[in-house]
């Protein structure tokens, strides 16, 4: 599967995963349902996942913009700066972490176990075909500085 690395934009993959998560609910009910079934504690958790996911995504993009480096995940060799500040002190992949949190919020809304099983598939694909290729490129670009960063900061959280 050497043709897959860096081929599907992560935002598109997150969207496709969300659509895949909707499928079991649509097949079972004929429509998208869920919000009406969330009770107060679950609603709080769902909203927390949603807002944390959105913040992680936006903070990741903002950090890249401040550093004036590429935000394009399909071209990691175009990175001009190794961003290690802001949300990048918590996660080497805050935008992808944000996507997982947003997908988690969607799973809570849908209340369907089959939908939730799509999240580990997303993470697995990202680890193997996106992040692995990015890490290889960043290691080539930034050498020991990047490897030291990897030792300090976790891939996800």
UniProtKB/TrEMBL annotation:
Keywords, ordered alphabetically: Membrane, Transmembrane, Transmembrane helix
The organism's place on the tree of life at top rank: Bacteria
Pfam family, one: PEMT
Membrane topology summary: Multi-pass membrane protein
Gene3D superfamilies, per the entry: 1.20.120.1630
GO annotation, cellular component aspect: endomembrane system
Membrane-spanning ranges: 43-64, 99-123
Statement: the UniProt record of this protein carries the keyword Repressor: no
InterPro entries (alphabetical): Phopholipid_MeTrfase (IPR007318)
Molecular function in Gene Ontology: transferase activity
Protein name: Isoprenylcysteine carboxylmethyltransferase family protein
Organism annotation: Thalassolituus pacificus
